[in-house]
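User: Here's a chain of 190 residues. Predict its fold as tokens.
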Amino acid sequence: MTDIELLHPLNHVGTNTIKTARLILRRFQLNDSVDMFKWASNHDVVKYLSYEPHKTINETKTVLKSWIKNYSKTTTYNWAIEFQGVVIGNIAVVTQDDECFTCHLGWQIDKPYWNKGIMTEAASAVVDYLFDEVHYDRITSGCDTRNIGSSKVMQKIGMTLEGTFRRYCYQKDGSIGDKFYYAILESDRY
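Assistant: Prediction complete.
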């Protein structure tokens, strides 16, 4: 595919429920605050993310209210990852460039669920949704090079490492790291 005219127009449908073999990816609800606080307050979970661990459940509720309000926009894509009735993380489109038919994914998952293929399952389903329903042509993601788990997810869902941004990730602890940058094209799936 070399010509932008060959692309389907974007079809923003918002955050709709996606079911996989083990997961329900759905919109957040305010009653998810207890589950979310568990992972949003965990230093290990948020180590490479931009926010500090939540100190109170009220902080979590404030974030949830903001996320829930954003669902009124069809351009919002932010899923709660529900596993066995518990919300264990989230996956979201964190930036979009509709003129270039591209978006950028970010995610987080509670530590007890690391290395079980759960984030790979969620990310794969969301990538399919964004290609098949929304018609993005390119989906990107990235992580601090020290975040091995996130990098493995990107590889497992078919993303290609496009480069390493040197001294790019300034962390809350004052350290600086390099950033892996991955992408997958809609045409890569065939």
